[in-house]
Design brief:
There is one protein chain. This protein is mainly α. The chain has helices spanning 6-30, 35-52, 59-82, 90-98, 100-115. The chain has one domain (6-118). Helix 1 packs antiparallel against helix 2. The mean pLDDT is 89.
Length: 119
């Protein structure tokens, strides 16, 4: 099928953002960052990137999917940090990111987004 063009990569970014932003907001608002929720978010983001790219499966689109999954989970981290008592800021985001209960779902979302291109 060939390599994705610049326009196709931009469309993949746009489609993936359309899923990553609301998905990250939803997980943060629900204050629920379970493993399966993160995997589902990653798969949805990977599917959106795949469709946006015109079904290209090359490494550039896979990187887009992985990065957008990370963006979605970072949005969740910011919302979770803002909901913690005390001063909200970068320190609170780092606390959320360093928590093992968040790191595993973060990695699972990234892996699921990239794995979506394998099946």
């Amino acid at each position: 099928m060939g390599l994705a063009s610049g326009n196709q990569i931009l469309r993949a970014i746009g489609f993936a953002l359309l899923v990553a932003v609301p998905g990250g907001l939803l997980l943060g608002w629900l204050r629920w960052v379970g493993l399966w929720a993160a995997v589902l978010l990653g798969l949805a983001i990977g599917s959106a990137a795949l469709v946006g790219s015109g079904r290209h499966r090359d490494a550039s689109v896979q990187v887009v999917a992985g990065v957008m999954a990370c963006v979605g989970m970072m949005i969740t981290a910011v919302i979770l940090a803002a909901s913690r008592p005390g001063q909200a800021g970068l320190e609170q985001v780092i606390v959320v990111l360093s928590y093992r209960g968040f790191l595993v779902p973060l990695l699972a979302a990234i892996i699921a987004a990239i794995a979506r291109f394998r099946f």
